[in-house]
Design brief:
About 30% of the residues lie in helices and about 20% in strands. By secondary structure, the chain is of the alpha+beta class.
């Protein structure tokens, strides 16, 4: 019988430490809930995010506000209400990114749970007639823009990160220099790891921890600032934006969310520019067209758009039947970058 062996194996596993007795909730444990949205769009081939002036600060912020259950009903309803009030935009596509506690140690301010969302809008929604300022997200993360080849700032960033990784920390410090180098290798694709465009948040957090961007790292390191200033978003909103960009890059490959960023009718050149803007790299024209047409993602409308100095461009639209034909109808492109 196998029962004795099972008992012997279980005896080798250490028992978990005893849990502290549960504490009854106290009146001061109540928290507020706030919502924030990274509203992303592509305008004239440039990926942009909606920002608004932050009250009492020089920074800008994402559209945000407190969640009011009686008037909003749902968290998504709160996002829609604050987006309409602050920038005058009606969002359609919404995806929750996560939640984080803020101000848990602040007194007498009430702790807040901030729930963040990714929102996508088409080019007509991100016009200058809105109350938002539409900033290129590559202004905040210039190292993510591979459309014209390897970003110029990347070599300087990696040199500063390597210097940070080599710093001698106090005894029992975590993470160790070896751990730091491994994180740099995976996040930035060095030493043969390969660049992964979805690791936007990992790269941002490493740069912030090294003191190269945002607030000084928690361990007190004070690396010299970057020669090119990077615009700042208020509080934790830069991390929300980094998470949103990474999630959009992942989603584009397995779901047809890129068409949320497109007008109803478009040329294949416009679609390619939008995908390049989102993912970062320049894509091969013929391979891209073969992929979207062969994958049944688009269909011709029968109309053409006149262009100056060239033949009329054929117009396409998203082919919705692909949702029933394929389990993951995304734009599956992967450019090799080193």
């Amino acid at each position: 019988m196998n029962t004795p062996v099972r008992y012997k194996t279980a005896a080798l596993i250490p028992s978990p430490p005893p849990r502290a007795p549960a504490r009854a909730p106290q009146p001061g444990d109540a928290v507020a809930v706030a919502v924030a949205a990274a509203i992303l769009a592509v305008r004239a081939g440039e990926p942009v995010v909606a920002v608004v002036p932050a009250q009492g600060a020089r920074e800008e912020s994402l559209p945000c506000g407190p969640f009011c259950p009686r008037s909003h009903g749902t968290l998504e309803g709160g996002v829609g209400a604050w987006t309409r009030a602050q920038i005058g935009v009606e969002v359609g596509f919404l995806q929750q990114l996560g939640a984080a506690a803020e101000g848990a140690d602040a007194e007498p301010a009430q702790p807040t749970v901030a729930v963040s969302y990714l929102a996508l809008v088409g080019p007509r929604q991100c016009s200058d007639r809105t109350q938002a300022s539409w900033r290129s997200w590559y202004n905040f993360f210039p190292w993510e823009d591979w459309r014209h080849g390897r970003p110029d700032c990347l070599a300087d960033l990696l040199g500063r990160l390597e210097a940070w990784a080599a710093e001698a920390g106090p005894p029992c410090a975590t993470p160790s220099p070896g751990d730091r180098r491994q994180r740099i290798r995976l996040a930035f694709g060095v030493a043969g790891a390969g660049w992964d465009e979805e690791r936007v948040l990992d790269r941002y957090e490493l740069l912030q921890e090294a003191g190269l961007i945002g607030p000084v790292a928690a361990d007190g390191t004070t690396a010299p600032p970057l020669p090119r200033p990077v615009p700042q978003l208020l509080g934790d909103h830069a991390r929300v934006l980094a998470r949103a960009v990474g999630e959009l890059r992942r989603a584009v490959k397995c779901r047809p969310v890129v068409f949320e960023l497109m007008p109803d009718e478009f040329t294949l050149f416009e679609l390619q520019r939008t995908v390049e803007a989102v993912l970062g790299p320049h894509l091969h024209k013929q391979n891209f067209r073969r992929m979207v047409e062969g994958g049944g993602l688009v269909e011709p409308t029968g109309e053409h758009r006149l262009r100056t100095g060239g033949r009329p461009a054929r117009l396409y639209r998203f082919r919705r039947d692909v949702l029933w034909e394929r389990t993951a109808p995304g734009v599956r492109v992967k450019a090799g970058r080193t």
